[in-house]
């Protein structure tokens, strides 16, 4: 019997990813919802803290170098209320840009919070999640490499949901230390979630679809930014209060756990509702992983001496700095510099996420097309994407330094530009992360998370160092750091980055053969028949 070759049936090797019956698309959409839940429970801490804390009282403490003593909160809040009338009169006369800039640093935009937590403590609370992730990143990667990514992902969302439910209780009865503890647990959960998602992607998505798939499942971040910021702002301004922010977020986590348990399995070969043609296509196009019975040794020496690895790590730090800026501090920037009220802040904060979503989906689709048609190699696509992303961010941040409350439209355009250019990096360093060592994806992801979380921890501390009142000048110092850091990351990745499987990956070192997958012949049922 004559075997069918690829040339004999070229059409059999394709099964569309973007199809209503594509099972891997269903899995990617569930991963997108997981990202949405994670961001809804963790990423809105900047706006949440603005609702929880009294910004005027905190600024008064900072300018007077005062230390809050237990029992003095009511006194400070009362003195603020006595001065509200005169401040409102000042602000009321500041409709034009000139008056706005005169009031900068004198009138603080406050969202009516009751906690008087210093700027430093607020920075520690934001950083707590990053600290928890930093400590637990490597163990999380090892767990994903050895156990079911599906179950670890379930545990991660469950921990996030419980921590979100307990956050109001911890904040009210324990204070800032309780909020720190809750955020720390969230960080541990987040660092379990990311390598689990990456592991699921390596099992379900062929390499020529990874840019688009990554753009789709990470779109959960932008969907949370688009709708979550508006929801958080409305809840903050409502009679439900800030605690409803955390309770509502936990409901998303509960719904995801139910759907995930009922619909998704670890790999295409043990899932239901998948067509044979798609199963054969995935078997022929996904690089095989080592058998679970084989004890895999991580090639530490080759990995840690690889220029590709370190270019990826540097850009992981930069990517995490951008995540902290876009998801945590954009609402704070709008409050401090543009002096927006809470509901306007929610609307403004959603727009950069829309630009990010549109940019990364279109760019990811174009990069996959160019790679599929062999116009660009995998390495060329990730290098082009990352370089364009980082240089675009650098230029946008440079001009953003000159914006203030008199130029809200231009500030919004530039922040949307920063967010859009960051979206291109999904087809850059993130696709590279998913591609260079599929057999060690858990370990590689955990290392990228550990090193990358340095950027997330550094960002709140850097902003707390420069920001006292929150003037445009203070934010200008922060943005200048982003100008140089992003440009450096783009140049390094252009020189040393890669999108190809490295020689130190298990499949290359052991010449793992691709499994003999039977491909459905042309006469079998096609997509329209099932």
From TrEMBL:
Ranges of residues in domain Major facilitator superfamily (MFS) profile: 59-501
Gene source species: Caenorhabditis elegans
UniProt xrefs under InterPro entries: MFS, MFS_dom, MFS_Na/Anion_cotransporter, MFS_trans_sf
Mode of membrane association: Multi-pass membrane protein
Family annotation (PANTHER family): MAJOR FACILITATOR SUPERFAMILY (MFS) PROFILE DOMAIN-CONTAINING PROTEIN, SOLUTE CARRIER FAMILY 17
Recorded GO MF terms: transmembrane transporter activity
UniProt keywords, alphabetically: Membrane, Transmembrane, Transmembrane helix
Protein name listed in UniProt: Major facilitator superfamily (MFS) profile domain-containing protein
Annotated TM spans: 27-47, 121-140, 152-174, 245-264, 308-334, 346-366, 409-430, 442-463, 475-496
GO cellular component term of the entry, any: membrane
Record localization: Membrane
